[in-house]
Amino acid sequence: PAEWSSKKGKVNSKSALAAEINTFLDKIRTISSKEYTRYIDLNQSEPTAQELKKIIEVQLFGVKTEIYGALPSDIYSYFEYFKKIQSKRTNKQGKKISKATLNAYKNTAIKLKEFEKQTKFAISFNSIDVDFYYEFVEYLENQNYQLNTIGKYIKTLKTILNDAYTNGVNK
Fold first, then answer.
1. Rounded Cα gap, residues 105 and 24, in angstroms
2. Does residue 44 surpass a pLDDT of 60?
3. Contacts from 48-57 at CB under 8 Å and sequence distance 24+?
4. What band does 69 get if pLDDT is binned at 50, 70 and 90?
5. CA–CA separation, 114 and 89 (whole Å)
6. CB 22 within 8 A of CB 10
7. What is the DSSP-derived secondary structure letter of residue 90?
């Protein structure tokens, strides 16, 4: 208590323990802000203190909860879910996410479905690995896509996979 700054919300010490505590507090603040906004985007209402506490526990400690309801477990439904959430978000400058970005999510999902249909490669969160990567890139090259376009598809897919991982859907 003697080393606590109520004004800054941090420990006023130069010790290693104080630095570790302050880093953890910063992490909690970042997660709280991000998850608060995400909850409002999904539910069109503010979370209660108890709901926000559960969400933070999930992010910090991996404690499972059903605060958001069931998230889509298949990759194509997750693409739709992600696109819906992103369409309500704003970027760092306060502008809505562009239609081009939202179309990138849609187009990547379409390209994956085409790949799945033509190659009979069953796509799921679990089937996406290095082998999938090389087959998908080869498929796109055979479709005469340029490296930049292929890179955009891969980048978009990675964005979806990372978000699903963060939300505990893609493990």
1. 33
2. yes
3. 56/28, 56/31, 56/32
4. low
5. 29
6. yes
7. B
Residues 163/124, Cβ–Cβ less than 8 Å? no
> How large is the average pLDDT for residues 141-166?
93
Q: Residue 97 in contact with residue 91, Cβ under 8 Å? A: yes
Alpha helices in the chain (DSSP H): 16-43, 49-61, 75-87, 99-119, 130-142, 147-166
Backbone conformation region of residue 120, classed left if phi is above 0, alpha if psi is from -120 to 50, else beta: left
Tell me the mean pLDDT in the region 12-34. Answer: 85
Give the whole-angstrom CA distance, residue 165 versus residue 104: 20
Are the C-beta atoms of residues 47 and 67 closer than 8 Å to each other?
Answer: yes
The maximal CA–CA distance of the chain, rounded, in angstroms, is 67
Predicted local confidence at residue 136, as pLDDT: 97
CB-side exposure of 44: number of CA atoms within 13 Å?
A: 1
Instruction: Write the CB contacts of 35 (distance below 8 Å, at least 6 apart in sequence).
Output: 52, 55, 56, 59
- Tokens at residue 21, please? 């505590």
